[in-house]
Design a protein that fits this description.
Layout: E1 6-11, H1 15-28, E2 32-38, H2 41-48, E3 55-59, E4 61-62, E5 65-66, H3 67-71, E6 80-85, H4 89-97, E7 102-104, H5 109-117, H6 127-140, E8 145-150, E9 153-158, E10 162-168, E11 171-176, E12 181-184, H7 188-194, E13 200-204, E14 207-210, E15 214-218, E16 224-227, E17 232-234, H8 237-250
Parallel strand pairs: 1-2, 1-3, 3-6, 6-7
Antiparallel strand pairs: 4-5, 8-9, 10-11, 10-14, 11-12, 13-14, 15-16, 16-17
């Protein structure tokens, strides 16, 4: 019998998907024991309630509800979650906002192995906060926080408190209204795609600003934005016209 150190469950309403995960786990993950499978919210709850698992593979769309419905039955889950979904714009954006692992169907083996290798026998201290934020996002349909993984750990930032972002090659630094700075190993383009464009704008290749914290528009040297904290952010020529049209509708009368 192969030694095991991780106990996993599979919850997916598609038999073929469950079979694919079984095969991948058996073929590539000798450290994993599959302790059970379920095909819905109710069967998933019955499976997970009496047993201890380190992690679950959880499909978003289930026959009698969603994966979110199942998680709502566990206010303080002791297991980690790897979500599985066919392409779903909102769900994927919610996972990215909360730095939660997910797999797209059909499952890519490299992505699968990367997700499994992140599972640890001990529950990660921030995982429940990630799931809580995810469930709140799903319930309200609004993105109010973003989880950022830095060398110091996981940071949960309120979008309304982000003043600006600045890039340095493949790193991005978040500047907060409190004065706090958080640097992460992701490109500025990653956050340009994530952050709501009603509130955030990229006036320059190296900067994204929160429109709420613009104090003045300066005409010097081609154009700058004076931000909260008195930082000056350049506005590129190609972005100036678009930026001014946005501001007319938001601030300028």
């Amino acid at each position: 019998m192969k030694p095991t150190s991780l106990r996993l469950a599979i919850i997916d309403d598609e038999p073929q998907s469950r079979q694919t995960l079984r095969i991948l786990l058996n073929d590539y993950c000798p450290q994993v024991e599959i302790v059970g499978e379920a095909d819905g919210v109710l069967t998933g709850f019955k499976l997970l309630q009496p047993i201890a698992v380190d992690a679950i593979f959880l499909d978003i769309q289930l026959g009698d509800g969603t994966g979110f419905d199942l998680l709502n039955k566990f206010p303080n889950p002791s297991f980690q979650v790897i979500f599985i979904t066919a392409f779903d714009d909102f769900a994927i954006k919610a996972f990215r906002y909360n730095a939660i692992d997910y797999l797209l169907k059909p499952i890519d083996i490299d992505e699968f192995l990367r997700a499994v290798n992140k599972i640890t026998p001990a529950r990660q201290p921030d995982h429940n906060e990630q799931l809580t934020n995810l469930l709140e996002t799903n319930m309200t349909g609004k993105f109010e926080k973003i989880a950022l993984s830095s060398s110091e750990g996981l940071h949960f930032l309120e979008l309304k408190d982000i003043v600006r972002l600045e890039s340095d090659t493949n790193y991005t630094t978040f500047y907060m209204v409190s004065g706090e700075k958080v640097t992460v190993a992701k490109t500025l383009k990653t956050f340009e795609e994530l952050l709501p464009n009603d509130d955030f704008f990229r006036p320059h290749q190296s900067h994204i600003v929160n429109l709420t914290y613009i104090k003045k528009i300066l005409r010097e040297d081609g154009g700058y934005l004076l931000m909260n904290g008195n930082s000056k952010i350049p506005v590129s020529r190609s972005k100036k016209e678009h930026f001014l049209s946005m501001m007319k509708g938001r601030f300028l009368q």
